[in-house]
Design goal:
The protein is an all-beta fold. It is 0% helix and 45% strand. The strands form four sheets. Strands 2, 4, 5 and 6 form a four-stranded antiparallel β-sheet that branches. The protein starts with a strand and ends in a 12-residue tail after the last strand.
Length: 171
């Protein structure tokens, strides 16, 4: 995410911006504003000093925390289990291939109605969305702490009820 940084402009000032790491993606600027686009998650201290008539100010600092973007789900990451009874809620979706022991909000739609489930992956990087009914599940994405959301897998993943038995015969 692009971050805009600025300080109050003092006429005649030349500004010098710096970051604790090149990974901050700080754009060099001599004005009172700049931008950064971090290349990796982390905590970055951004500093700016101003120079007026050869005199340099103490630095003003701000810490910018860049959270990791959750992975995008793929068809190969989702295993479905159909409900075991007609109209039942024994269906589930297992999401795999995710970072271990991580909490996410899974955003998805069932038959066009948006919903969210909170999951925590296990040590193997899998988590289950339980108690699902038959329907068409689409538009999956993961959101993490800090509000970062990964890419969307459009789906669909279809859960179906068992087959309805045929009418009794022999009457």
């Amino acid at each position: 995410t692009l971050v805009n940084l600025s300080v109050t402009n003092n006429t005649g000032s030349v500004y010098t911006w710096s970051a604790t790491s090149g990974d901050a993606g700080l754009v060099t600027s001599s004005t009172n504003s700049t931008t950064m686009l971090a290349t990796s998650p982390g905590s970055y201290t951004i500093s700016v000093v101003q120079n007026i008539a050869g005199c340099t100010s103490p630095a003003a600092n701000v810490v910018v925390i860049v959270n990791p973007i959750p992975p995008a789900l793929l068809a190969s990451n989702i295993t479905d289990t159909d409900p075991t009874t007609c109209g039942g809620n024994q269906g589930s979706l297992i999401l795999s291939g995710l970072p271990a022991n991580t909490t996410y909000n899974v955003n998805y739609s069932r038959n066009g109605s948006a919903t969210t489930a909170t999951i925590m992956t296990n040590a193997s990087g899998s988590a289950t969305i339980p108690n699902l009914t038959a329907g068409s599940y689409t538009n999956f994405s993961l959101s993490a702490t800090g509000g970062c959301t990964g890419g969307v897998y459009a789906g669909p993943v279809e859960l179906t009820d068992p087959l309805i038995p045929s009418a009794p015969i022999g009457m």
